[in-house]
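To whoever picks this up:

The nightly regression suite flagged C2H2-type domain-containing protein as changed. Nothing in the input moved, so I suspect the structure step. Input below, exactly as stored in the fixture:
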Amino acid sequence: SHVDNRYKQGLLRTMLGRAHRLSSSWSHFSDECDRLKTVFSRLKYPKHLIDSATNNFVDSKVCDQQRPLLPTKETDDTIRVVLPFKDQTSENFVKGQLKDLSLKVNTNIQPVFVSRKIDQELNVKEAKPSIVNEQCVVYKYQCDLCDAGYIGYTRGHLHNRVKGHKQQSSAIAKHCKNVHETIPQDLLKCFEVLKKCRNKFDCLLYEMLHIRTL
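Regenerated output under the current build:
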C-alpha cells in the first residue's frame, strides 16, 4: 500500500529525535543515525528521503547549539521590567516579546508583573470609627478656654467616659465649674484619642507615658 511521504518524514523525525535525546554524545548519535538509515532502507524508504530528513534534523540541532543561550541562573546583568498585570493572554504575549528581545541584545530581560490591590481597584477607603465609638483608649482633654489639660484612659466607649466627666465629682467638671463657672454642652469636641490599646495594661502604660509629656 502507498504511504504518503509526509508520514514517512514524520516517522523519521520522531526516531531521530528519540535517538538524539538518548545519545550522550554526538558520536553515539551519529552511530544511531547510521543504524536508522539501515533500518529505513530495509523498509523500502527512498534514500533521498532518509538523507534529507537526517540532514535537516542534524542541521537544526547544530544551529540550536550555536545560538547564544541565556544563562539559566539569574545574574546581576538581568534586567527586570515592572509591568502592570492585565490578563494571562497579555502576560504570555509580553513574555514572548521580551524573550525575543533578550536573544537580540544578548541580555536577560525578565518581566515582573504586579497587580493592583483590590482596595485600589475598588477605591475603598478605610472607614475610621468615630471618636464616640472608640473604646480601650488613652485620651486627652484640652480645655478650649484655657491651657488646662487632662489625660486618662477608658476600657469602655469614650462617649460614656465623656458623660462621666460631666458629673460633679469629675476633675474636668470641677475645673470647668471652678474656673469657668460652666460646663460646656459640647464637651466631646475637647477630647482626642492619643492611643488605641489592646488591654488594660497597655492603657495604664501609655497613660503614664503621655502624662509625663504634659
